[in-house]
């Protein structure tokens, strides 16, 4: 039987791996992981991402070793590595999952495709998430297709005849030109750690998920924390979805008093798993949104390049707005923060500081261990008001601080310059005598004035006649058919500054 090369990308597991299952049925499998040094020079990649990814690759190598195989770790340009394999082993069949990555991985995949065609190599790609590739995409039936895929049986780990191969050690971060970036609390990489988190979330930590997900004080425990495991594929989306569904079913017959709270949490969680693929689908359908706004009428609205001083103050957590700075410093140390804080940080960059989401988004991308381009760029644009179809939602840093950190202890912990400030004024230190916090900067901008300017700029564009036409086109291409816009009728209120949707505005 001919050789099957299984190219592991961001799907670092053996279970529920469609490409591996198919490859194993076709012949001996050579498992391959390619470290691409050029990828690690990109502005959306970072030390912390590499450290987590590296840990997952090492974990996968152990799992393959336990079955008597060797993960072939190679380094270099993907086409060059594959060509070297071809020269060494002769023709093979190539297998992988479909990847919806950044523009660089997209271009690399196109090069691999051209190479494979020229060499007569067949490259089979299998779906990894509920994301659809190709011309047949129909947003009206997308959700049903997602559901159907998630309900297919989880694929058991196949019996694999591993082909003999050689490997090299994984490079260190320094060999890839990366530098420690302030991460202090990296989540433990690998499949076992992901399963442990999933189990503790479903049976222990997740009860107050819906109520506690918005505050950074409680979210660390109450959220699943599964995002990096999904990003690098240590767990499959289907495994997570089905485990949550099983838990929900079991709750239906439970007599436990906490049943209702748990069920609500499980439903919210499952909805978010759906959003994961819903957002990645946007990038799959329109790769340009990595750089261009969904609604092209916003091209050039925010000046580029960004004001370097404002960008640096925001990125380093010294804007003079305590809750913003605390959230940013927490993110820098953890490589993760909850949804509400991500949205608030992006909103502050986009509205208060009038920074382009492309540049601010790159800073966040590097800070997120779970960086997932499809979710990330869609969210960055949503929180900057450049989708054309979402409510413009400006977060007030002071109100968010009072709501999500009422005692101010999160601020005191992450902004030690304010550790001695007592009471509610920790949220507004500019109202104190300067001597109370001499090392903390004054506010970088006036929130009210700055955001009034930003809203005015956006709504002036939204009022133009073409805005409605463009919004309809964006909705047709990307909009969720379950969202308020679909229920209202497509174009309804698309140009209205007062149009309101749900708090999370996830109807994009
Ligand atoms: C500006 C901005 C950028 C973001 N960038 C990323 C990113 O690069 N990678 C990423 O995984 N998430 C991103 N998110 C979405 C969300 O904040 C994270 O998925 C979530 O905080 C991860 O923590 P968790 O795994 O504990 O989530 P949970 O609340 O436990 O949710 C479970 C899973 O559902 C998915 N999910 C949850 N919320 C969302 C959402 N709003 N949109 C899409 N999928 C969601 C994720 O896969 C997550 O792991 C971003 C949000 C914003 C506002």
Describe this structure in words.
- The longest helix has 27 residues, at 259-285.
- The protein contains 21 helices and five strands.
- The chain is mainly alpha-helical and 508 residues long.
- Helix content is 49%, strand content 5%.
- The chain has three domains: 4-128, 3-Layer(aba) Sandwich (Rossmann fold); 189-284, Serine Threonine Protein Phosphatase 5, Tetratricopeptide repeat, CATH 1.25.40; 289-488, DNA Cyclobutane Dipyrimidine Photolyase, subunit A, domain 3, CATH 1.10.579.
- Mean pLDDT is 93; it is low at 490-508.
- A five-stranded parallel β-sheet has the order 3-2-1-4-5, covered by helices on one side.
- The N and C termini lie far apart (47 Å).
- Flavin-adenine dinucleotide is lined by residues 213, 223-227, 230-231, 269, 272-273, 275-276, 279, 338-339, 342-343, 346, 368, 370-372, 375-376, 379-380, 383.
Fold topology:
Layout: E1 4-8, H1 18-26, E2 29-35, H2 47-66, E3 72-75, H3 78-89, E4 93-97, H4 103-119, E5 123-126, H5 139-151, H6 191-203, H7 209-212, H8 216-222, H9 227-231, H10 237-252, H11 259-285, H12 308-315, H13 322-334, H14 339-352, H15 357-367, H16 373-382, H17 397-404, H18 409-414, H19 447-462, H20 465-478, H21 484-488
Parallel strand pairs: 1-2, 1-4, 2-3, 4-5
Helix pairs in contact: 3-4, 10-11, 11-16, 15-16
The protein binds flavin-adenine dinucleotide.
């Amino acid at each position: 039987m001919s050789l099957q090369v299984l190219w592991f990308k961001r799907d670092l597991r053996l279970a529920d791996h469609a490409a591996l299952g198919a490859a194993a049925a076709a012949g001996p499998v050579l498992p391959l992981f390619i470290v691409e040094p050029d990828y690690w020079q990109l502005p959306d990649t970072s030390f912390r991402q590499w450290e987590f990814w590296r840990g997952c690759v090492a974990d996968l190598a152990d799992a393959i070793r336990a079955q008597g195989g060797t993960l072939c770790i190679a380094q270099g340009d993907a086409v060059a590595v594959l060509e070297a394999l071809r020269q060494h082993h002769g023709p093979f069949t190539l297998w992988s999952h479909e990847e919806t990555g950044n523009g660089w991985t997209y271009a690399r995949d196109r090069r691999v495709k051209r190479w494979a065609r020229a060499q007569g190599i067949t490259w089979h790609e299998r779906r990894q998430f509920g994301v659809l590739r190709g011309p047949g995409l129909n947003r009206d039936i997308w959700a049903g297709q997602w559901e159907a895929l998630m309900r297919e049986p989880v694929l058991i780990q196949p019996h694999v005849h591993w082909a003999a191969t050689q490997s090299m050690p994984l490079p260190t971060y320094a060999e890839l030109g990366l530098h420690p970036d302030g991460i202090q609390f990296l989540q433990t990489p690998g499949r076992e750690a992901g399963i442990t988190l999933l189990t503790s979330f479903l049976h222990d930590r997740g009860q107050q998920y819906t109520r506690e997900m918005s505050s950074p004080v409680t979210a660390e425990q109450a959220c699943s924390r599964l995002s990096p495991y999904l990003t690098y594929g240590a767990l499959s989306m289907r495994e997570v979805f089905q485990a949550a569904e099983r838990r929900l079913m079991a709750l239906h017959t439970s007599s436990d008093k906490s049943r209702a709270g748990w069920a609500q949490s499980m439903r919210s969680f499952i909805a978010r798993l759906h959003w994961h693929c819903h957002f990645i689908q946007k990038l799959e359908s329109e790769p340009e949104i990595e750089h261009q706004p969904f609604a092209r009428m916003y091209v050039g609205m925010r000046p580029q390049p960004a004001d370097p001083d404002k960008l640096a103050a925001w990125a380093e957590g010294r804007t003079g707005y305590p809750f913003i700075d605390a959230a940013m410093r927490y993110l820098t140390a953890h490589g993760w923060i909850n949804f509400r804080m991500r949205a608030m940080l992006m909103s502050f960059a986009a509205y208060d500081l009038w920074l382009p989401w492309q540049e601010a988004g790159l800073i966040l991308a590097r800070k997120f261990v779970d960086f997932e381009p499809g979710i990330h760029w869609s969210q960055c644009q949503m929180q900057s008001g450049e989708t054309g179809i979402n409510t413009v939602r400006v977060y007030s840093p002071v109100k968010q601080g009072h709501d999500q950190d009422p005692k101010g202890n999160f601020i005191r912990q992450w902004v030690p310059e304010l550790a001695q400030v007592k009471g509610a004024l920790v949220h507004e230190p500019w109202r104190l005598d300067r001597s109370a916090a001499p090392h903390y900067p004054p506010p970088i901008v006036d929130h009210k004035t700055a955001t009034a300017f930003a809203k005015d700029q956006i709504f002036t564009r939204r009022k133009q006649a073409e805005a409605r036409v463009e919004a309809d086109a964006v909705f047709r291409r990307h909009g969720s058919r379950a969202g308020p816009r679909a229920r209202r009728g497509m174009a309804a209120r698309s140009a209205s500054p007062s149009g309101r949707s749900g708090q999370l505005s996830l109807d994009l």
